[in-house]
Amino acid sequence: MRIMIRVALGAGAVLGLAAVATPAAHAGGAPGGGWGHDGSPGHGRPVHGHVVFVQTDAVSGNQVVSYAAGGDGTLSEVGATATGGLGGVLNGSVADHLGSQGSLAADPAHGLLYAVNAGSNSVSVFDVDGPWLTLRQVVGSGGTFPVSVAVHGDLVYVLNALGTPDVTGFVQSGGTLHRLWGSTRALGLAVPTDSTQFTSTPGQVAFSPNGSQLLVTTKNNPAGNDVDVFAVGPDGRPSAQPVRDAEPGTVPFAVAFDAAGHLVLGEAGPSSLATFVLRHDGTLVPLDNVASGQPGLCWVTVAGPFFFTGNSGSNSTSGYAQTGGGHLALLGSTPTDPGTVDGAATPDGRFLYVQTGGEGIVDEFAVSPSGSLDNVGSVTVPGAVGGEGIAAW
What we know:
Layout: E1 18-19, E2 51-55, E3 63-69, E4 75-82, E5 104-107, E6 112-117, E7 122-129, E8 132-140, E9 144-152, E10 155-162, E11 166-173, E12 176-179, E13 185-186, H1 197-200, E14 204-207, E15 213-217, E16 226-231, E17 243-246, E18 252-257, E19 263-267, E20 272-278, E21 284-291, E22 297-303, E23 306-311, E24 316-324, E25 327-335, E26 340-345, E27 351-356, E28 361-367, E29 373-380, E30 390-392
Antiparallel strand pairs: 1-8, 2-3, 2-30, 3-4, 5-6, 6-7, 7-8, 9-10, 10-11, 11-12, 11-13, 14-15, 15-16, 16-17, 18-19, 19-20, 20-21, 22-23, 23-24, 24-25, 26-27, 27-28, 28-29
C-alpha cells in the first residue's frame, strides 16, 4: 500500500526545522589508520558489506557510533557523529534509559537514519553513506521525551513517552522531516514520576507491514497494558481513537512481524513471545505464546526466519523459529554481556548484534542455518552505558 500525502512545505508547515551538516568524526577508528572512503592504501581496509549504528543516549550530548562489519561479522569502529541533541533517562531505568524499542530507525529506501533525543525533545535525521553519517536536520518531536520512531514510505511517526504521551506524524521529503499537522494523537496515559516510570511509559510505535495501521505498546501503565492500533488514512493521519487491545498483566513491550504478516509481541510480564493475527479492524487474535524460560524478555529482533529477544533479567538472548501459521518454536538461550536490551540483524539475517546497556557493549553473533548463535566478539561503544538504539544496514 502506498500512501499519498500532500503537505505544504513552506516555512509555516515545518516545526523546529534546523538543517545542519556535520560530517562524522573518524576518531577511534579501526587499528592501523582508520577507514578511507576510497579504500586506498594508507587509509585502512575498504568498507564492504554491512554497517551497524549504535546510539549512546548520553545526557551530555547524544551520539551515533558507526561500525563496519567484516565478512565474519566482527565490527570495527568508524567514528561517532553528534545528533545535535541530548539523551534522556527515565526514572527507575538501569540498562535501558529509554524503556523502548526503535529509538534508532533505519530508512534504507531513502538513505536516512533517524535518532531520538529524549532529553531535548527532538529527532535527528542523518544522511547515510556506508558507515559515514552526516547530520541533516534536528526537528522537534511534537511532544516530550521521544523514545521510538516508525517509518513506512515517506511517513515517519514518533512516540513521545512523557508529559502527555502521544504519537506525532511527519512526512519525509528531500531528506528532511515536515510536521504532518493534525496527526498528533494522545494515548490517554498518566505517567508517574517515581521509580515505576520506566515500566509505565509506552514502549514502541510501529507500522503494520502494509502501512495501513499504526501500533503502540503501552506497557504496564494503569491506563494501558495494551496494544493500541490506529487506522492510518490516505492522508497519513491516524484515526481519532485507537482500537485498544487489552493484554492485562503481560506488559506488552516490543513488536515485530513474521514473514506472513503476523504480529509478534514481546511480553515482559510472563517473559514470553506471543503471536497474533492483526485484523483490518485493529483487533488482535491470539495464535501462539511461548515462554522464553528467561526473565525480563522485552525486545524482539527479526533475523531471517528467526526471532531473537533481549532478556534483561538474565543477560541473555532467546531464539525462536517460525514454524508456520504464526506458531513459534523455542531454540534456547545464549548468554550476553550484562544488561541485555535491543538488537539488530543484518538484512541477510546472517549476523545478530545485541546491545547491552550494563557496560555499553554490543555482542556480535553469527546466526547458523538452524538458528543457533556463535559469538564472534564484542565491541564497547564509547559513552553508551544505559543507551538504547541500534540499527543494521
